[in-house]
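Researcher: Sequence recovery benchmark, item below. Answer with residues only.
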């Protein structure tokens, strides 16, 4: 596996990769890799001839009081995992390489980004959209792979690619991969490592109570009451607070107060022991 840390290195490495022909997949990450990321890489390898993975802890998507400094960074371990999975090229720029001095551009998104994590993390999705647009321009993949674990993020990226006409030639296809979960149902996340043993055990309440809420809603329960019960049970189960627990249209992410005939999604963000966890599940 080659590793590029500057744009010139990336361009040279890509030229060599593409000289032999074949399709190219991009798997963008912020590192601190786990089986969820590696599942994206495996799906990418099944779909394309070459896989390029990026590792960049993007400062523009972190708010002033968030965990940018604390975010786990383990490039050597991550690199070994990616090489073992057959990744051809790791794009691992520093901040200066991604945002050189004089950088003055930011993509502003709205609509699918307005509620939920967009409201809880002002500017977050603008940061995500800006760096992903740059990654698409830098790599020009045939396919790009993202996790449904970050469901709203995936919707934002799809909207950005559509609106900026990035689907050709910058990226041909944006693929969503189902959430990979721990044995007790907790969605794998780089931030799970922040959890104490007690909080990690209690965090299993998140998928458990989400499933209970979905069962109630699908059985005809009032959506507002089901969501209030979900929030209460999370706090009773050890969560400090709930940023949001919402039913949304699976496509538009418009908040819903009743179960529609169209596909819907339950979206939750909650805090436990100072760690913010998110999850989402299909409803109906
Ligand atoms: N459990 C998972 N299942 C499927 N995809 C995942 C999972 N965890 C992360 N991903 C995907 O991997 C890509 C990189 O995500 P990122 O590097 O932020 O990891 P993360 O586990 O989401 O970390 P964080 O704790 O910051 O949420 C994203 O597209 C994300 O949706
Ligand atoms: C898509 C992404 C790599 C952009 O920094 C990040 O938001 C993530 O890891 O989900
Ligand atoms: N996968 C989520 C990235 C973030 O929380 O910034």
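Model:
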């Amino acid at each position: 596996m080659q590793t590029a840390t500057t744009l010139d290195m990336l361009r040279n490495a890509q030229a060599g990769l593409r000289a032999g022909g074949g399709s190219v997949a991009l798997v963008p990450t912020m590192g601190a890799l786990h089986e969820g990321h590696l599942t994206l890489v495996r799906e990418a390898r099944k779909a394309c001839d070459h896989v390029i993975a990026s590792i960049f802890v993007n400062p523009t998507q972190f708010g002033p009081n968030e965990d940018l400094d604390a975010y786990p960074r383990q490039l050597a371990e991550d690199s070994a995992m990616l090489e073992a999975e057959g990744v051809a090229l790791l794009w691992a720029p520093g901040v200066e390489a991604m945002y050189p001095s004089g950088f003055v551009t930011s993509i502003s998104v709205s609509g699918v980004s307005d509620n939920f994590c967009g409201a809880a993390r002002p500017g977050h999705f603008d940061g995500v959209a800006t760096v992903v647009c740059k990654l698409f321009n830098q790599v020009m993949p045939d396919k790009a792979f993202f996790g449904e674990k970050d469901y709203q993020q995936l919707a934002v990226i799809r909207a950005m690619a559509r609106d900026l006409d990035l689907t050709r030639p910058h990226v041909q296809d944006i693929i969503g991969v189902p959430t990979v979960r721990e044995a007790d149902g907790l969605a794998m996340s780089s931030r799970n490592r922040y959890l104490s043993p007690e909080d990690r055990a209690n965090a299993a309440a998140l998928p458990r109570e989400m499933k209970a809420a979905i069962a109630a809603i699908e059985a005809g329960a009032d959506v507002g009451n089901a969501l209030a019960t979900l929030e209460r049970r999370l706090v009773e189960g050890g969560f400090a607070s709930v940023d949001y627990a919402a039913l949304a249209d699976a496509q538009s992410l418009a908040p819903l107060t009743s179960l529609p005939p169209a596909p819907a999604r339950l979206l939750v963000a909650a805090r436990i022991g100072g760690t913010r966890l998110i999850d989402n599940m299909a409803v109906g």
